[in-house]
Amino acid sequence: MGLNQLVNATLAQLQTVLSQLSHEEYGRKLPVLSNASVGQHTRHIIEFFQTVIDNYESGVFNYDKRQRNTLLETNRDLAYEELSRIRTGITKEDKDILLKGMYANEVSDELFIRSTYYREIIYNLEHMVHHMAMIKIGIRQSTNVLVPSDFGVASSTIYYKNSIL
Predict the structure, then answer these.
(1) Do 128 and 44 contact (CB within 8 A), yes or no?
(2) Which helix (H) or strand (E) holds 53?
(3) Tens-digit pLDDT profile for residues 55-75
(4) Helix/strand/coil percentages in the chain, nearest 5
(5) How many CA atoms lie within 13 A of 112 on its CB side?
(6) Could you tell me the pLDDT band of residue 21, with boundaries at 50, 70 and 90?
(7) Helix (H) or strand (E) holding 16
């Protein structure tokens, strides 16, 4: 399975699980998630992917300056639509990019790091899986929604577990 297919399949899995939640369940702050919601974790995933897609042409990415649209935290349907937009928008040619970031509290500490589009897509995939693991914990603690056992589990972990059986 290629990179785009893997990302698409993982995004589709997230959409399938989210579609089973009520709007209230999606936006409810959960103690098990340090009072974050499934919607907040989903917004975070979406905005990282949006950063990569929306800045592809300029070739300069800055995750620190993402939009932070709080409607994505409470509106499950809007989040679902954005996940669909990401699924159709990630298929692009690889190219060199420049990643900007503030890794301290001062603008003078802004760093510029060379990367590639595909490297950032892989980063976003791993980042998404990490947040999906937290989403799974929240859903299992607060709803009756069934979450697949491999939801929020890295491909390498699934491969490893299957290879030792």
Answers:
(1) no
(2) helix 38-54
(3) 999 999 999 989 899 999 999
(4) 60, 10, 25
(5) 6
(6) very high
(7) helix 3-18
99 phi/psi in degrees, rounded to 5:
-100, 125
How many Å apart are CA 77 and CA 4, to the nearest integer? 23
Helix (H, G, I), strand (E, B) or coil at 102: strand
Contact 9, 1 (CB under 8 A): yes
Q: Using CA atoms, how far apart are residues 154 and 144, in angstroms rounded to an integer?
A: 24
* CA angle centred on 22, ends 17 and 27, rounded to 5°: 90
Distances from the Cα of 135 to the Cα of 5, 93, 106, 157, 161, angstroms: 22, 31, 32, 18, 22
Q: Is the pTM of this model over 0.85?
A: yes
Confidence of residue 102 (pLDDT cuts 50, 70, 90): confident
